[in-house]
Amino acid sequence: MNIRVRYAPSPTGKQHIGGVRTALFNYFFARAQQGTFILRIEDTDQERFQEDALQDIYDTFSWLGISWDEGPDKGGSFGPYFQSQRKELYQKYVMELIEKEAAYYCYCTQERLEDLRAEQQKAKKSATGYDRHCRDLTEAQRQEYDEKGISKVVRLKIPLDGETHFYDELLGDITRKNIDINPDPVILKSDGFPTYHLANVVDDHCMEITHILRAQEWIPSVPLHVIMYKAFGWTPPKFCHLPMVMGNDGHKLSKRHGSTSLVDFRKNGYLPGALINYISLLGWSYDDTREFFSVDEFEKLFTLKKLNKAPAVFDYKKLEWFNGQYIRKKTPEELTSLILPYLIKDNVIHDPQTDKEKEILKGIIPLIQERLRLLTDVSDLVRFLFIDVGIPDSRMLIPKRLDKEKTLIVLQSYKEVLSTFIASTDEENETKFREKALELDVKLGDFLAPLRIALTGTNVSPPLFESIRLLGVESTLRRVDQAISLLEKE
């Protein structure tokens, strides 16, 4: 069997974690089976269509480095790949269902349907939905409605009794009583466009899709689709409904848990490899220990048998950790290229960089690579090397075990040690600072703390001695003098 799978997003919003995971699982399954991965744009809801959402689909997967074999931008033998361009095809198949008496025209107005819903809610009926008012209209009644110019939709006939069965590759046998299925849903709207249900079934059949991998939220639609497949006399693809992605609170992942759109993760400094790796482990595992996989490895190792039935929990902290690990793997040149846009955007360095900035950048990469979790961390971490950031509050200069007078003595004492700093090794400088701290009867940590604040404006920074070398002794002494002046005014 030639495996054919599809990712079929609706361009009504940004690509999010759940959708991207669905795409990745389809992509990896196709690659592992030497099959075909298809992008199909489900844009029949023209009122909600967003041009920028369509572009976001292309941009997201281009950034991730994931490409499809067939799609709107690549073509293929089963196009067009925009559902809005397949309108005549859907109308043709709707007529087939009507001729088979598996579907029918419905003339109910929006007002009638709203009144029906209100009635059902008032009566607190357990079974709600369409009441099949037009299901058994005579030819004469339909003709009368048509002559009056009343707009119509097409509804699928759901059997009034019996059950519908289907098999899910992950969840096993699933059975639904037909009475519990959405009664006679609309499959063709009055504007001639299909609803999701009709377009989904027709396209999957016509595009020869062999496996449907999608989120479990679509399970309620499957019995309806199976009924339609039977009405057409078609064999359905194999179904596999993927485990849910949840937040730490046990609810489905949503914006209330934090950002879920890929464009936000990209802006916030995540690497595509880290995102792919982490997202692909949400509901899939190769074994109980291994966590790191390249795209090539996923393409070889992915199998439906390794999917988990239990929901997966999206842990933002774990993703940050993954991202940090991927940053560690970058070469100095790669990391420089990655952080440059953030430094320029935050006005830390010029575009293009000066020679001095290039020199500092080259020196700072080894100092920050182990400290970065996100690429966006870089500006706050290194800004002091390019800009005199100042000290937000003079009280920051005073360690807990020292007072103002003792801190001023410590600040003054730096000048002697710094006079020979550049000519000395880090080991020699550490000895000198340690001896000076001992001479002043101050613990080394308390002794160095005011210097770090004076240089960086914060108590979190890259290694102090290396930072002094990059900043230069002249600039270091100038900032020490500024700190002394600030503290004296306190």
Q: What Rg do the Cα atoms give? A: 32 Å
If you consult CATH, what is the topology of the largest domain?
Rossmann fold
| Residues in helices, as a percent range | 40-55%
* Physical arrangement of strands within the biggest beta sheet: 3-4-7
Structural features, described:
The chain has 490 residues and is mainly alpha-helical. It has 4 domains: 86-242, Rossmann fold (3-Layer(aba) Sandwich), CATH 3.40.50.620; 255-329, Orthogonal Bundle (Glutamyl-tRNA Synthetase, domain 2), CATH 1.10.1160; 330-383, Glutamate-tRNA synthetase, class I, anticodon-binding domain 1 (Helicase, Ruva Protein, domain 3, Orthogonal Bundle); 388-490, Arc Repressor Mutant, subunit A, CATH 1.10.10.350. The protein is 46% helix and 9% strand. It has 19 helices and 11 strands. It has helices spanning 17-32, 51-64, 87-99, 110-123, 139-147, 196-206, 222-232, 262-267, 272-280, 295-301, 316-328, 332-345, 355-368, 378-386, 404-418, 426-439, 444-456, 464-471, 473-488, and strands spanning 4-7, 36-39, 103-106, 153-156, 163-168, 172-177, 186-188, 211-215, 238-242, 245-246, 312-313. Strands 3-4-7 form a 3-stranded antiparallel beta sheet. A two-stranded parallel sheet has the order 1-2. A hairpin with a 3-residue loop joins strand 5 (163-168) and strand 6 (172-177). Helix 13 (355-368) packs antiparallel against helix 18. It is elongated, with a radius of gyration of 32 Å. It starts with a strand and ends with a helix. The mean pLDDT is 95.
